[in-house]
Design a protein that fits this description.
Elements: H1 16-29, H2 39-55, E1 58-65, E2 68-80, E3 85-90, E4 93-98, E5 102-107
Antiparallel strand pairs: 1-2, 1-5, 2-3, 3-4
Length: 108
């Protein structure tokens, strides 16, 4: 028997506005609150951050952005204490993150 694949779901997407609204609702429902870290946790993150920067170690970093927690892996290339930003490099790609958005750092 031949499967119809995505054709069978096309009637449910017949109203683009409705599909867009449903997708937006699902996106909003999956958001989480910003984790609140204690003073001890912040100090520990700070120590790990600087140690990994000095030793050029590869880290796994969880950060909060717009209701979601994301994961990025790479080496910490730069720490900007004035702007409170860090730069992580992974596969020749560099990403900037605010230090205040970091939730967790682990060595790989």
């Amino acid at each position: 028997m031949k499967q119809r694949g995505m054709v069978k779901w096309q009637p449910f997407a017949s109203l683009p506005e409705q599909a867009e609204y449903i997708n937006k609702l699902i996106h909003e429902m999956n958001k989480v609150d910003r984790p609140i870290l204690s003073e001890d946790q912040l100090n520990e993150l700070n120590e790990i951050l600087f140690r990994c920067f000095e030793n050029k170690e590869v880290v796994s970093l969880n950060y909060y952005h717009d209701g979601y927690i994301y994961l990025v892996e790479g080496k910490i290339i730069k720490i900007d204490g004035i702007r409170k930003m860090i730069v992580i490099e992974n596969n020749q790609k560099r990403d900037k993150f605010s230090i205040s958005n970091i939730v967790n750092i682990e060595l790989i």
